[in-house]
Amino acid sequence: MVRFLLSIFSFDTVEYRSLLIPHGALGALLVLVCIESLLHLYEGRLPDPVLWGNTETSAKMLQVKRWSLECDDCFDALVLGPSHARFGISPKAMRTAAGGQELTVYNGALNGRTYPVFEFLLKNVYVSTLKPHTLILAANPLVFNRHNTWMERNTLEFFEAPMPRALSSQGIVKAWRIFLIDNIKLYRYRERQDGLHNGHLGNGVSLDAYGFSSIDGTYDDKARARLQSPKHPYQTIMREFDFGGPSVEAFVRILKYALNMEIRVIVVNMPFRKDLLSISATGEEDYETFLKEMRALQYEYRFMWLDYQASVSLTDEDFRDVDHLNTRGAQQLSARLGEDLARFITVMEEPSPSGVRK
Questions:
Q1: Whole-angstrom Cα distance, residue 165 to residue 356?
Q2: Is 206 left (phi over 0), alpha (psi -120 to 50) or beta?
Q3: Over the stretch 54-67, which tens digit does the pLDDT of each residue have?
Q4: Residue 355: inside a domain, yes or no?
């Protein structure tokens, strides 16, 4: 055996059609084939592959795939947005608050991602699998700010992951990359983690069946002091407000796409503490600019605007930090959203005088 291994990894060559092929190359190929064969053989026992850039996105894509096999056209609404929606909107709490109306909602929001990612996932995954009747989009002045390059950098990383790269490609390149993911286990299992198919993200964090998990903590003096630190990323973002940037552009494309696909849209102004506006001397004026721009978009694209910053009474006890709700706050906001969504669906399902549903 030792002699055989030494021979296939030697510097000697073998001639094939006038080509001199080193034994070492043949040996390396043999090793790869053996490893690939073992991965195929034991695939059912391997951890789940991380194909979408991080564990959270990969876990949600596995959940969505499972939902698409279990039911067809059964989701009333899909939640999209960054972390304030990811931790702030509980589909189960929405369903409970809707009373007799059986709402089925999936929280497709992602921590640390912005609207270019949600546009991509909506068009490439969510619409074809969940078939949502309504989109619930989260709005926030922090995200809809051209100066928020901090979060947009995380979004760029998403598109370098195996599955987004494959789906973003064209023609034969797309087919080749999807083939690698589906069939070449050495490629598919480059990064992996146990339990993703069950929503386990690691470090004791797990998603429920509808893509939600809450966070604990209270917005106290320590959290307030961290926000005021010059090193806090929000300091750079909020000192100069300019409504625009990649997230606003992707958000508008989502609104246009929803119109074309006849998907109803609700936009939620997610609550935050006023300390977010105190970062800048012009914070209040900047926020009024944000509201004005959102009203202009509402007028153009006719979505339902729910200003929960103004209409939902929350205290520091309901927040983990300046713009993220904790478990208690998420339950309160989700209950209100469940009631509003149920009313919205009821109104939209009523036939108009012409006999056509709205």
A1: 42
A2: beta
A3: 999 999 999 999 99
A4: no
